[in-house]
Amino acid sequence: MGSVNSLIRKNIRSLKPYSSARDEYQGDAAVFLDANENPYFAPLNRYPDPRQRSLRSVISGIKSIPDENIFLGNGSDEAIDILVRAFCEPGSDNIVSIDPTYGMYEVTAAINGVEFRKAPLGEDFCLDNREIRRMADRNTKIIFLCSPNNPTGNSLSKQEVEELLGWFGGLLVIDEAYIDFSSRPGFIDETLKTHNMAVLQTLSKGWGRAGIRLGMAFGNSEIIEVMNKIKPPYNINSLTAEEAVRTLGRAEEVRQHINEIICARDLLREKLDKIEYVEKIYPSDANFMLIRVVNADRIYEHLKAQKIIVRNRSNARGCENCLRITVGTAEENDRMLNAMRNYKPER
Ligand SMILES: *Cc1c(COP(=O)(O)O)cnc(C)c1O
User: Fold this and answer.
1) In this structure, are strands 140-146 and 171-175 parallel, antiparallel, or unpaired?
2) Cα separations (Å) of 7 from 90, 139, 196?
3) Which of these three, 212, 234, 249, is where a domain ends?
4) pTM for the whole thing?
5) Measuring from atom 5 of ligand 1, which residue has the nearest CA?
6) How far apart are CA 111 and CA 129, in angstroms?
7) What pLDDT is recorded for position 89?
8) Residue 139 belongs to domain with CATH number
9) Is the distance from the beta carbon of residue 76 to the nearest atom of ligand 1 less than 6 Å?
């Protein structure tokens, strides 16, 4: 297997990470006077475990991947930022991604002073490797893909992704924020078979825990090591770690919610299809649907006036007059549908 070592920025490769009190002594001492904590107000008076050992071992069991291949972040957004900072030299390296996709890759690249290049998706928002190859060059350190993709809802072809991996020498990152709603397998297993691929997942969507901020990255141990090396020492707080363990222990309940959302999504599709000004409903492997309407701005405003908020994606490439609608509860979906039905197109 190859190595990502040569892809890592020089200053990061030579970085000696901050070593916290909790890194240096990990035993079960009787008296802890090493971290300048307040001795009262237990248990949250103590710093959390910087290595998140108990939470990572729970995730390891659920995802069937060793602990050393798991990075945890303050949301996947932190994992995205850390990947950019570990691999991309500001001013000279670049990142390639698909268009349209999740906006955070571009924002994070811009914050870090890294050039961001957008490869248009093809027909029906399919991955077009020719476009990616056209955009990428020897300074491309990361390719960000998103599958199922936001805002389009479709999964990218496994075959195309594998072809890309066979050709690309940098780090290929697949954001699987919506994988729990998809019937297709994700790419976690592939990350262990190759040196230059990472998968991002999150508790924010399928697991119903956007509020606690927990993102996960999976990859070969070299990738995970460098991510852990540059993360803030205590990036996962104790409350988040505890709630995450509780939530992951309720996997069956979560599965039921997900199944309900998938049923509601399919029902919503049927009902939206009967609205005459809905011109297209894109297929979705996620918990939202992209629909094309006659006039997205007007319909967005019409819904907003009834206190129903959807996402107007009209400005995204290939998404003219498109709204992205999250699947809610049956009641929420009905309210949205009723509001859509009483829209009167202006003549
Ligand atoms: C919602 C979403 C995320 C989640 O980010 P968190 O920081 O984990 O909440 C990541 N990627 C995509 C594509 C998303 O749509």
Assistant:
1) parallel
2) 14, 10, 9
3) 249
4) 0.96
5) 76
6) 27
7) 98
8) 3.40.640.10
9) yes
